[in-house]
Amino acid sequence: MPVNRRGKKSRPTSAADTPVQQDPREGEPLANFKTTGITNLCNVAKPFKNPEYKSSRRWKNLKQLIAQEQAASDWPVDFPAYWAIDAPPSLLPQKKYCDITGLSAKYTDPKTNVRYHSAEVYQVIRTLPPGAEQQYLALRNANVTLK
After folding, report:
1. Mean pLDDT, rounded, of the chain
2. What CA–CA distances, in Å, run from 146 to 117, 132, 134, 143?
3. Span 70-98, mean pLDDT?
């Protein structure tokens, strides 16, 4: 770019002032791509990696973890471990699922106590033979047994 009197670079005023550079590879599809000779990045030397480094960590499967934790007897009683996974009960209400489709149940049939997802499923519940709703309730351990 030309320099003006103040020492700042000035822009050319017309297209005729810009220098034209001809690229001998003008017709090639990658004419502006500068090749560096590197075809595979895996073969490039990486100065930030130490080739003599060996990790001291070893992968352990679940059986090895459990054996290691059971061997250490100095764990507190309430310390969570793989061999004694316990969780407190959830503070959220239990999710309700449709007994017919398995989708989330928004409604409950007051007559049969069967949970259902939509009006189409309710029509199916209405067409069930007597006693079939007890089988659906037995799947979720909510059936009523008369003694």
Report:
1. 75
2. 28, 16, 12, 10
3. 77
38, 44 in Cβ contact below 8 A? Answer: yes
116: left (phi over 0), alpha (psi -120 to 50) or beta: beta
Q: Which two tokens stand for residue 69?
A: 């934790």
Q: Where are the alpha helices (DSSP H) in the chain?
A: 62-71, 119-126, 132-139
Count of other CB atoms within 10 angstroms of residue 112: 18
Alpha carbon separation from 44 to 19, 33, 36, 93 (Å, rounded): 37, 20, 12, 57
Q: Closest Cα partner for 68 from 79, 57, 81?
A: 81
Helix (H, G, I), strand (E, B) or coil at 124: helix
Residues β-bridged to residue 107:
116
The number of residues in the chain equals: 147
pTM: 0.41
Q: How do residues 13-54 score in pLDDT, each as one tens digit?
A: 555 555 555 544 444 444 444 555 666 777 777 777 777 888
Distance CA 46, CA 40 (A): 13
DSSP structure class, residue 4: -
